[in-house]
Amino acid sequence: MAVECGPIPYTLVNVNRLHEFVLSRDELYHAGYVLGQLSSRDLDMKRRCASCLRVVKPNNGRFPKQRQAPTAVSGTAPAARQYSTVAQPAPSPAFDIDAVFEQLTVSATRKKTEEPKAPIMRCRFHPGQRWTCCRNYTHSKACTSSEWHTPRLYAAGELEMNWVFYTTPSAPAPVQFAAAVVIDCEMGTAESGDSELIRVSVVDFFTRDILVDKLVMPDVKLAHYNTRYSGISKPMMDDALRRGNCFLGRDEARMAVLRLVGPNTVVVGHAGNQDLTSLRWIHPLVIDTLCIEKKRRKFDQGTNNDTSAAPRRKNSGPQQPKEEDKDDGDEAPAKREAGMSLKALASEKLNRQIQTKGKGHDSVEDALATRDLLLWYMTHPAAH
Hints:
Blueprint: H1 12-19, H2 25-30, H3 40-44, H4 97-113, E1 123-125, E2 144-146, H5 158-162, E3 166-167, E4 180-190, E5 195-204, E6 210-217, E7 222-224, H6 227-230, H7 234-243, E8 246-248, H8 250-258, E9 266-269, H9 272-278, E10 281-282, E11 286-288, H10 289-304, H11 310-314, H12 342-350, H13 363-379
Parallel strand pairs: 3-10, 4-9, 6-8, 9-11
Antiparallel strand pairs: 1-2, 4-5, 4-7, 5-6
Function: Exoribonuclease involved in ribosome biosynthesis. Involved in the processing of ITS1, the internal transcribed spacer localized between the 18S and 5.8S rRNAs.
Domain Exonuclease: 179-383
Pfam families: RNase_T
């Protein structure tokens, strides 16, 4: 039977218990949360290829590596040897048929091994605007490839304006903010390749009331709505816009959230760094159920290890990095570990099925699942 957690009383005990799960600044940083304005280096990591739209990291396939020309060695040449001016007869070379045959064999083998290798195609794309190039679907395999990426040209200040982050502001004393909220967002993909906010949902942690749930009309054109995952389509967005029932851009969506959230409000999410980044929002008090699960797994692995193996581990050589510690581009590393998704944890801990096949995600459903998952962690403390 699925676990359904109803409203819980707003008491000092529950608030203090909640604050025990708040991530420290160091934990936020390592979980991928933005803590300040992006540096020039951070902005460089946001640049994309104009053809395949992938992020082009500095010196990673952006352009061909320049081979250095051999430098001339300066200095005084060693003194020339003194040779006799008397002509010396040239020695007649001895003819060795075995040596000649061996030399020919080595030369032929070397030619085979020194054949140029096929270039690595780093950039794969469709040159047509809507795949008119090959008449295939949007997600079809690229029909064109290039050895090197083509950096997109950005207008002056374009990247900086798109990646400005806003910290939760203080408010006058009479304003009452929620004590704790749960947030979940859905994202589409802009024509530039960047992830773009298209829906935001906020739920009160204590009452389960839905405080915000609206589509967000992006400020930029979308390549696709990721309907399979987001559950949102273009007709849905057009209908919401026609009815005036959507936020116009991420700034309006963020301001709506900040009318409910103050600097002392606890914000809960699952891989919430993605949600806050989509809103360009920096908040000091965050609980991430993904981080809680990671901590529990590390603790379980530590307690299950045989202590007698510890001395041998000292001299066992360099340890191989875990799969979740490897960096692989845009995707959050912790999100890739088996059973760490919200869908998997809701099924395991709550016996609740969410994000069912064919329906896409529902950000309200996901927010409530995140909220109940946190309550499960609070009522099932890890053994110490």
